[in-house]
Every structure is written in C-alpha cells, then in structure tokens.
C-alpha cells in the first residue's frame, strides 16, 4: 500500500501546484486531488497537503515536499 497524498484544488491553484508536480514523479506515492479537503482555514493560510489523512505544511512548495518525506519517514505505515 502506498502513502496517499491529498491536495485541495484551491490550494493547488494558489500555493502547492509545484509541490504536486514534484511529488507526482514519485511512483511510490498515490496523489489525489479533491475539490475540498475540509481544511479551509489551513488552506487559506498556508501551503499544505494531507499525508495519510494528516495535514503537512510548508513555507514554500520545496519545503512542503521536504516535509512530506520527513513525515513519511517519521510515521511509517507498517
């Protein structure tokens, strides 16, 4: 089972699309786009995605990518 990385379309449109492009090149991840992830306050304030259902943020797209991999390293699925 691959880690699931979920992106809100609103956040993709304003902040996180570059991070999405970087992460989608990793065949060990499943990326999903939703019209809304029900994290509106977080979405309005920061670059973020959900990693296995948990919010992960970054200061910029590259930082978000780094934090996604850090989260996965610190929270193995098995």
From TrEMBL:
<dbReference type="InterPro" id="IPR009910">
    <property type="entry name" value="DUF1450"/>
</dbReference>
<dbReference type="Pfam" id="PF07293">
    <property type="entry name" value="DUF1450"/>
</dbReference>
<protein>
    <submittedName>
        <fullName>DUF1450 domain-containing protein</fullName>
    </submittedName>
</protein>
């Amino acid at each position: 089972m691959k880690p699931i990385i979920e992106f809100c379309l609103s956040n993709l449109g304003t902040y996180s699309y570059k991070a999405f492009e970087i992460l989608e090149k990793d065949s060990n991840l499943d990326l999903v786009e939703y019209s809304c992830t029900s994290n509106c306050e977080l979405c309005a304030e920061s670059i973020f995605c959900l990693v296995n259902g948990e919010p992960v943020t970054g200061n910029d797209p590259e930082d978000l990518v780094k934090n996604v991999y850090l989260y996965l390293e610190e929270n193995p699925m098995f």
